[in-house]
Amino acid sequence: MKKTLALLALLVCQIINCQTFSTNLTPVGWEHNILFNSVTRYTVTQEGPTINLAGLFDGSMNPYYMAGVTPATPKVILIEGLSGYHTQAGAWVGWTTRYLPASRFKIEGYDTYNGVNVWRVIADYSDVDYGNYNFSVKIPVGGVYSKLKFTFYNGQGGNVGLSELFFIHPEATIPYSGLLTQSATNWQNNGTNLFYNLGNVGIGINAPQNKLDVNGTVHAREVKVDVTGWPDYVFKNNYNLPTLEEVEKHITEKGHLENIPSEEEAIKNGISLGEMNAKLLQKIEELTLYMIDVNKKINVLQDNNDRLIEENKMLVKKIESLEKK
């Protein structure tokens, strides 16, 4: 029994000691892969036989294949605009595939550290066959690599498969940030704020045309809309207030108020809150002027009516006085 326990304890210690964790020197997973979603975060171009570029950077590991890859027509994938972080303790570059691995390839990086601005060879299998389904290598010369170039020269019968390209840079990113944000300038944190600087956001809609498109109800305690003007000009002396006859004519001919969208236009194009509120306020202010004018006329009529009542009373008294004589 004691021997069994001792053997079990030794086995546990070996397992623990063999466990490897991601560190600056020993990346195990791809959580620090800065090439996730490269097609939207950086500038990615390809030459030679075409392949689904987006699929090589989405972390899904789905294989994509190219035919006709030869030394005369190599496949070149160039990634530009990478983060300007030094590789420090280490960074790793490579590729993986399920089938049809490249047998001849080269990986290069453009180093800008201290203004050196040179292409450095990271891995070169252009003259010797490589026989595995994945490849990774630690960048041999530390630097700031703003570009990566993958060149594939051959595979099985000119066929090459690729599932993912990666650049594992532990000190250049937080885990999986490239998968969580599809652009280096999109979702970002600024203290307690989260902001988005590129493209449009759609909620319940696949192809948003505005900064925020929502196919549904938006519930808020308050909505603030910036405006470029406000219709207080209605109250200025030089404002050309339409007569009520003109308003009636426009309604009769058009079926809606002047400068207000028709029902058909509103349903087709929607309305802009800031613009519509300003237009509605303009109409309210015009109504206010009409009411003030009507009130003045009513006051005049009231005064005239009061005067007529008093005159009538005086006439009644005169008539009664004449009748008594």
Automatic annotation (TrEMBL):
Record key words, sorted: Coiled coil, Signal
Could you confirm whether the keyword Coiled coil appears in this record? Answer: yes
Q: Where is the signal peptide?
A: 1-18
Q: Which residues form a coiled coil?
A: 291-325
Write down the superkingdom of origin. Answer: Bacteria
KW Signal (keyword) present: yes
Name the record gives this protein: Uncharacterized protein
